[in-house]
Specification:
17 helices, 6-stranded parallel sheet, 5-stranded parallel sheet
Length: about 425
């Protein structure tokens, strides 16, 4: 059912890279469809948007009245509301620690240089909803945006069975989102980017989605800002003989149940432990409501890796650059400082990745497809743009200018040189 990779082989890294690349190449298959949808929505606005919603989601209503939203929220189980409130407070508290600091500098020539953070004016947050409902994702997107000071937050969220989820709507209300559209897929990304009569365009789009959403974000980048190309979920677990096989199997299945393209990887030096996890996966799958999704995910993208050393563990993890990493080993301190590529790292046997999806306080919108090698999870910083301010004194330009003139002439930019010369010419 699940692939096993033995690292005794000298070319194990090449084999692993082939397995990882095969999964990542799936995004490219949808490019032409996505481009067509984007072009159509950009040209025909609401008409095209509604056409794709009807065709792809059987959705005939892209907005809901305040009365309808309130009625839906009232139907929500109080226990769910309490859980959302609890998660809201923890996420708010942790993200509030991500304070930014403006820089102000004056040199000996009385030149003044400043670097200031300015909140982005408008942001569109994408909350998946075609296969499941994610009020947690509403919180993860909107709370850091609110802390940064974003004035306009727009939520797009596809309906599930032609209904908006009351938990998603309650989370939106909790964070003060007033502009909500029941749309999804590439058409939602296009509408947020270029605007329609009903939907005013935004400056940046954030949030995870399926392959079509990720492809669309990639296509429109440049016309709008984006956070990251967040693909299907991933987890890599490092375990040893002291780990609990049933716990580890459950952690892998928690990720596999997200999507058939999710990636679940176990790394261990103990072959017997790997076999116990494999058995536990089979047993636990039987009772999992989303077992068909999880089983296909494990068949397509699951890997059990038998390693020989800590060095191999470190090398493999840094190569995978997983979205989620669990170091479920007795002495994780021995290797954690050498791991440079991961979206988030759970340390110790009680730190289940599933907690971080909800109320640990950290953000669950994280880099996937090995992009943790160069990017980070969503944070307050993603909702700022930075501006440099330069105020040169007369002495400053007269001192810095000659050197600039030399470099400008060397680069063949005489207009640059003249711009300086006119200011430092003495009367």
């Amino acid at each position: 059912m699940i692939k096993i990779l033995d690292c005794r082989s000298n070319n194990y890294q090449s084999k692993l890279n082939t397995l990882l690349s095969k999964r990542q190449s799936g995004v490219k298959k949808n490019t032409n469809i996505v481009k067509k949808i984007i072009r159509d929505v950009r040209k025909n606005g609401d008409k095209a948007l509604i056409k794709y919603e009807k065709r792809l989601s059987k959705n005939t209503e892209i907005t809901s009245s305040k009365k309808k939203i309130e009625k839906s929220i009232k139907s929500l189980n109080p226990k769910i509301k309490k859980a959302i409130d609890f998660a809201f407070n923890r996420i708010l508290k942790f993200h509030s620690k991500q304070k930014v600091k403006n820089i102000s500098y004056k040199d000996t020539l009385n030149n003044k240089l400043d670097y200031k953070y300015m909140p982005i004016d408008s942001v569109g947050i994408y909350v998946p909803g075609g296969n499941a409902n994610f009020p947690s994702t509403v919180l993860m997107n909107s709370i850091p945006a609110k802390i940064a000071g974003v004035k306009r937050i727009v939520m797009v969220n596809p309906k599930l069975k032609n209904q908006q989820n009351p938990g998603v709507l309650y989370a939106a209300k909790k964070t003060g989102i007033k502009e909500i559209y029941s749309i999804g897929g590439a058409q939602a990304i296009a509408a947020l980017t270029y605007g329609t009569k009903r939907i005013k365009k935004v400056n940046k789009i954030v949030g995870p989605g399926n392959i079509f959403v990720s492809s669309a974000k990639k296509e429109v980048f440049g016309d709008v800002g984006i956070d990251i190309i967040a693909g299907p979920s991933e987890i890599t677990v490092v375990a040893d003989k002291f780990s609990n096989a049933d716990w580890i199997a459950a952690d892998l299945l928690a990720q596999a149940e997200h999507d058939t393209n999710s990636q679940c990887i176990l790394i261990s030096k103990d072959k017997n432990f790997i076999n116990r996890v494999k058995t536990s996966l089979t047993n636990q799958l039987k009772d999992l409501p989303r077992k068909l999704i999880a089983k296909k995910s494990l068949i397509l993208n699951g890997i059990l890796i038998h390693v020989r050393s800590d060095k191999q563990i470190i090398d493999i993890v840094n190569m995978i650059a997983p979205e989620h990493l669990e170091l479920n080993i007795k002495n994780y301190k021995k290797i954690v400082t050498k791991i440079k590529n991961a979206g988030s790292i759970c340390l110790g046997k009680y730190s289940a990745m599933a907690i971080t999806d909800y109320n640990a306080g950290t953000n669950h919108i994280l880099p996937t497809n090995s992009s943790a090698k160069f990017s980070s999870g969503l944070s307050v910083y993603d909702f700022y743009k930075k501006i440099s301010y330069i105020n040169l004194s007369k002495k400053g330009i007269e001192t810095l200018g000659p050197s600039v003139i030399t470099l400008a002439n060397f680069e063949g930019l005489e207009g640059h040189a003249k711009s300086i010369k006119l200011r430092i010419r003495r009367k």
